[in-house]
Amino acid sequence: MIRFASAANTTTKRSWRSYGSTVTLAIFALSAGIMLGRSEWLLPASWNENGDEELVQSDVVVPPFSIEELNRIEQQIVDECNDFVANSENYETTRQRLLKDIWRNSDPLPPELPSRLLEDHPAPNWRVTAVENVSNVQYFDIDIGSGFRSIVRYLRPLRESTRLNRLMIVQQGHGGLGDNGTDTAVVRFLGSGCDVLYCGMPMSGENSWPPEIAVSGGCGHAGMAVLERDDFNPLELFFNHLPTGIKLALASNQGPFRDISMCGISGGAWTTTVYAAIDPRIRFSFPVSGSTPHQLRPDGGKREYEGNPEQSIYAIYAICQVHLMSLLAIHPFERPVDQTTLPQRGQIQCYNAHDRVMPVLATEHHYPLKYTQGVYKAAEKAGGLFTWSVEPDQHQHRLSSFHIEKMLKALTGADEDVF
């Protein structure tokens, strides 16, 4: 039986500008914050016939916390979650603070950014457009600001008779479109009757950006530091495509969706975690191999991850750490006018057991899961549903069929025990 622990809510407030001038001395994986290079830490390679972990030498290490430290962090997170849900005003107050920091001098969650419909878009290197589950694909080119553009695809399922009128947002990570299993997810969601809004991160895939913004760091976003001003946070460029993309999908649908949900892998899981916390329209959120609280990262999250300033260096983590974002993501705010119902909201944090970016079965540590217990215990008082899911035999950093099927069961209510 695996026990889980959690984390505290202290962080160092830094700016993008300071990040841009920092030379990162260690290489870090984006979502988990795991450090590479030491081989003496043990990770399980497989399970033996008794269900116990078989340990092998590995180049991947976990944050060097003792069991005592992790237990302390777990209790801190439990206490923080309980304190947060004890005051009903915390939900909207915290959400508004996040919105005001991300959109410092503009309207938050902008629904009508300039966009154009691309005709006969060739969709290079992307396989979904040819599958039989699609009846129609629209390609929207959205101006997300500061010379950045985002290509967002809205896809409708082929069979109108089985269409559920549900919108699933699939958010790609730092790779190209179709990487890490997102193409499989799009096809499966379409086949189940969901409409799909398929998106990528800034400076990745087919998205474009100003030539003076250098692609630097491990995942390319370090160059965005030059954009920061007192009245502009580059962080909004990671989210601007979503409210406008949803508005465009609603217009194409010619009416409200039954509900809107969201999933993402890696950097897309981070996007999913944050966006579900700030946009109450997201009913279910499914981050796959996504963020962990800073307290479970090396140096307590004080060290910037190479090329990923969005993960570590700015003020939203002083406002709200990942575990509290999960509580915001499941709290039932007022029903948005573009949805037909106010269903219970929920989140499933998804992990792959032997994922090289975020391995969850790291001897007795299981460290990426250490914060889930606090959220789980506070979920009922928050008014929502929360759980986690681990695919035991998955060794790749991907959105797998194992998790996709759990997402569909949550969406359709086919399995009451999914939460």
Multimeric state = single chain
Structural class: alpha/beta
Overall outline: globular
Helicity level, as a percent range?
25-40%
Biggest β-sheet description: 9 strands, mixed
Tell me the Rg in angstroms.
20 Å
Low-confidence stretches: 1-14, 16-61
Strand order in the sheet with the most strands: 3-4-5-7-6-8-9-10-11
Instruction: Indicate the mean pLDDT.
Output: 77
- Number of separate helices: 10
What is the terminal separation in angstroms? 18 Å
Strand content: 15-25%
Element-by-element helix/strand order: HEEHHEEEEHEHEHEHHEHEH
Number of strands: 11
Structure characterization notes:
The chain has 419 residues and is an alpha/beta fold. The protein has 10 helices and 11 strands. The chain has helices spanning 16-20, 67-86, 90-102, 182-191, 241-253, 267-278, 316-319, 322-330, 372-382, 401-412, and strands spanning 42-47, 53-57, 115-118, 134-145, 148-157, 166-171, 195-199, 259-265, 282-288, 346-352, 385-391. The strands form 2 sheets. The chain has a 9-stranded mixed sheet, with helices on both faces. Strand 6, helix 4 and strand 7 (195-199) form a beta-alpha-beta unit. Helix 2 runs parallel beside helix 9 (372-382). The longest helix has 20 residues, at 67-86. The protein is globular and about 60 Å long. It starts with 15 loop residues before the first helix and ends in a 7-residue tail after the last helix. Residues 1-14 and 16-61 have low confidence and may be disordered.
